[in-house]
Hints:
Elements: H1 2-6, H2 13-17, H3 35-43
Amino acid sequence: MAAxxxxxxxxxxxxxxxxxxxILINIARSDVVDEAALVDAxxxxxxxxxxxxxxxxxxxxxxxxx
Length: 66
């Protein structure tokens, strides 16, 4: 299925290649963005906004503040 093929397509490599002023906005299913990679990128200082509709891992980006 296409949905399974897209799961986690926004992974740890994507934030590493983003310009410092870039913003990632996901209006698709939340599983398109790798949750662990998002939380790790926020912890590393990526300036971003995250408001996922659900988190499978139970980790909240709100808990990560730089």
